[in-house]
Amino acid sequence: MAGEYDLKAAFLFNFAQFVEWPSDAYAAATAPIVIGVLGEDPFGASLDVLVGGETLHNRQLVVRRYQSVEQIDACHILFISSSEANQLDRVIRALAHRSILTVGETRDFAAHAGVIGFELSKRRLRLQINVAAAADARLTISSKLLRQAQIVHSSGERE
To answer: Is the pTM of the predicted complex or chain greater than 0.90?
Structure first.
């Protein structure tokens, strides 16, 4: 469904406005904000079109695609495609201690230590946020974004 991924692309773009990264998450003061896609890319051109030419906090936004977690260098927002579901735990472990906002759409993504999970419920896109995973990644998520989401704990316990 093309509309679903256009909406998810818009969310990825907007997350950059509602999340703060530590200063050491950037190689330089002018380094771009990188939105990455790991695995099969479901967005087509929509993410590139949305992000193209955009800047935030004097940083250009760029999109990068990765076929394996080992390829990920400078990345701030990482959409982990459902094609990576069978190796999600390995991916999350490999990214531990890095300030990357991990976003996914696999079932209970946030409960498996991802930071933000997309959940399609009754034809509506809902967000689940694991605040402990965000804290582990040294990310600060705006209360404006937190209010729009269901808070999920790694144990699967929900608030």
So the answer is: yes
| Distance separating alpha carbons of residues 149 and 5, to the nearest angstrom | 19
Pairing of strands 77-80, 59-66: unpaired
Tell me: the pLDDT tens digits for 51-84? 999 999 899 999 999 999 999 999 999 999 999 9
For residue 75, the SS3 value is coil
The CATH topology of domain 2-151 is Rossmann fold (3.40.50)
Distance CA 86, CA 69 (A): 13
| Beta pairing, strands 77-80 & 101-104 | parallel
Question: What confidence tens digit (pLDDT) does each residue in 7-39 have?
Answer: 999 999 999 999 999 999 999 989 999 999 999
- Cβ neighbours for 93, distance < 8 A, ≥ 6 positions apart: none
Is the Cβ–Cβ distance between 77 and 43 less than 8 Å?
no
Q: Residue length, the chain?
A: 159
Domain residue spans of the chain: 2-151
30 sits in the region (left: phi over 0; alpha: psi -120 to 50; else beta) called: alpha
Amino acid type, 142: S
